[in-house]
Amino acid sequence: QSTWGTPLVFAMRALAVLAALLVAAVALRVVEPDHVLADEAIARGLVAPGWHRASRAAPDSSVVLTFAVKLDNLDVIMNELMEVSHPSSPRYGAHLTHDEVVALTVSAERIDAVAAWLRSMFPHGALEFEGIGGSYVTVRGIRVSEAERVLGATFFHFRHGPSGRTVVRSATHYGLPDEIASAVDFVSGMHRLPNVPAPTKATAPAAGLVVDPRLIRAKYAIGDAVGDGKSSSQAVAQFLGQRCGLGDLDEFRTLFAPWSFGMTPSFVGPDKGLAGTEACLDLETIVGVGAKIPTTFWSTPGLHESQEPFLVWAMNVSALTSPPDVFSVSYGDVEASLSTSYMERVSAEFGILGAKGVTVFFASGDSGVGCSGGKFQPNFPSSAPTVTVVGGTALGVLETGNEFCNGLSGGGFSNVFPMPSYQADAVASYLAHNSSIVPPAKFYNVSGRAYPDVAALSSGFIIFVDGAPLPGVAGTSCASPTTAATVSLANNLLMSKGRPPLGFLNPLIYSQLIDSPAFFDVTEGGNPPQGGGCGGNCFFATTGWDACSGVGA
Asked: E strands of 411-529, at which residues?
């Protein structure tokens, strides 16, 4: 145990921490699409449902393309991540500075080479350097005719029926010169259709069940703990173009969390638009539970039809020299709909945040194990080994009994990322000792990164939206800000005493906190595919780690 492990574990127990055609004379490398756009592939469910190819994009219309320039020494960064995140390491808590990360990962020469090529190919385009060290080069004002000539692509409008949203993407492969293709991970705005998640919905709550900050703070032994307003910070991110006004937040606090008054959240991005269930759920929960912790509501609308809001957010956060100590994100996509290069780069960005001491939580998803083509469908970023993933639990009627795994709780095994060493023993034990309830291996990749890591309450929440209370809100979007807020309070306790923030939690969770009083072991419930299929097979909660509730709540 580290020299500050004992007080850390005490704090965790006390607060229940769930914490990538030029002219013919130039040889091109054909780049596989970041996202399959054939109508036939859409019909097979490899992309989010609802997207359909429409008309050809007008030659004089514009697109925005972002070139993700490769980073150096990512193996070193991942090693650093483990060194500063594992309690048995002598460097535990010695997080890297932003400048140290930039020095390790960013190649100014490579960025300059990509930028010079872009300027020569798109002389009318405006270049912006975003992300850590300017490693994402965005070109705005590119005419479709230019992009098709230079990249050998064919652009169409794609329409998302349920929302009416349209994007411009290429329906064909594209090409880059060898020296440029070898310098970038992917090109955003070419193929990937952005996920348009359905807003969190409210359903009729179980009789007498109302989950509010009072219940959460009692259930997770938080008591009357509040932050000191300065030592630690937290944030929520949203991508639906929603807002949660201060009026709704104050009404919520008056009724359900009066102790949280005294601090006003800050807003990054537009603070306009309609009040939304997801936005208010995230903000009200993290403020009500993580009371008096400086809080940021980070809004990334991505209104331009060539932009991908989630990637824009990831780029912006990676560029921060002093990001919030804790992020809660309720966003996900199906792994099968994304390119490996895209997922690996985004996962690396989260690893960089962890190495800097930032804790990143993602909701595990609301589709259970998911099912397509007779196999479970893991989600991303839930499957990334560099984030902490929060599944969902529920309580019985009248808030009685132990928590059980909520049937919607996303969980499973990645088809892209191998199982990280920090969880190997726990997952091996689960598979070895539960043969009677573990689904057949034909449904999932037994050697993949397994999730969720932890869980929290995810049904029966009451929030305030557009001037009125809304009960019965459910989904792992409830669980992620709940867990993030709890960890923020632990951070505040530690940082107020001059200690570092918890940072990337997973090595701590799997090495010291599993099977400890820090978690309630969820042993009931399962997560069948919410859309049906796969014979109803799923992962059931059981003693120790499981792919429904993680190590527990």
From this structure: 412-418, 448-451, 454-457, 461-465, 468-473
Reported pTM: 0.89
- Check: CB of residue 304 under 8 Å from CB of residue 64: yes
Q: Which residues pair with 451 in a beta bridge?
A: 412
- Residue 330 in tokens: 């309720």
- Nearest CA-CA partner of 330 in 402, 279, 264: 279
What does the block give as tokens for 40? 């036939």
Could you please report the per-residue DSSP string of 129-171?
EESGGG-EEEEEEEEHHHHHHHH---EEEEEETTTTEEEEEES
308-320 tens-digit pLDDT: 678 888 888 989 9
Token pair 């514009």 is found at 62
Question: 251, 282, 284, 366: which one is catalytic?
Answer: 282
Q: How many CA atoms within 13 Å lie on the side-chain side of 249?
A: 25
With contact defined as beta carbons under 8 Å apart, do 267 and 452 qualify? Answer: no
Residues 6+ apart with CB under 8 A from 3: none
Q: List the catalytic residue out of 80, 148, 185, 278.
A: 278
Q: Annotated catalytic residue: which of 135, 232, 414, 477? A: 477
C-alpha 252/C-alpha 464 separation (Å) is 5
Residues 185 and 341 sit within 8 Å (Cβ to Cβ) = yes
Which stretch of 11-15, 94-98, 303-307, 477-481 has the lowest confidence by average pLDDT? Answer: 11-15
Known catalytic residue: 278?
A: yes
Q: Indicate the average pLDDT of the chain.
A: 87
Closest by CA position to 190, among listed 202, 180, 175:
175
546 is catalytic: no
Six token digits for residue 98: 């932003």
DSSP 550: B
Distance from first CA to last CA of the chain, Å, rounded? 23
459, 211 Cβ separation under 8 angstroms? yes
Write out the two tokens for 362: 């993602």
282 is catalytic: yes
Distance CA 471, CA 474 (A): 9
- Of 162, 142, 138, 164, which Cα lies nearest the Cα of 151? 142
Alpha carbon distance 63, 61 (integer Å): 7
Both tokens of 63, joined, read 């697109």
